[in-house]
Design brief:
This protein is mostly helical. It has one domain: de novo design (two linked rop proteins). The chain has four helices and no strands. The longest helix has 27 residues. It is elongated and about 45 Å long.
């Protein structure tokens, strides 16, 4: 069996930003209307958790497979952006909250694509 390089996901800046995004999202969704608990809140929370989770899962794979998991993580970040725009349109989050989250998500996306290109 060949020795394959493994990535320690806890040391990856993209994973740490993903964890920050999850924390920010859970704090914000706590204030959503209770009737959204099984709707938009559930969707947004699951989507945010998917971002660092896929990085962690992919880190134990080959670089080619890891790149696929990074694609999934990126997809979740774009999906999350859309859900946050919907939350803003429904007036569950403010323009300022949306802007702050979009900036952090954009930073994550840029760094992840750059990291992916180096694999």
């Amino acid at each position: 069996m060949s020795n394959r390089k493994r990535h320690n996901y806890k040391n990856l800046k993209i994973w740490n930003i993903g964890i920050e995004i999850v924390d920010d999202i859970f704090k914000i969704t706590d204030s959503f209307p209770k009737e959204e608990k099984f709707g938009l809140v559930s969707q947004i929370n699951r989507c945010s958790v998917s971002i660092p989770s896929n990085i962690a899962e992919g880190s134990s794979r080959t670089d080619k497979s890891f790149s696929h998991f990074l694609d999934i993580s990126l997809g979740s970040s774009f999906e999350l952006e859309t859900q946050l725009i919907i939350a803003n349109k429904r007036e569950f989050i403010s323009e300022e909250q949306l802007k702050t989250l979009e900036e952090k998500i954009a930073e994550f996306q840029k760094m992840t694509m750059s990291f992916q290109n180096k694999l």
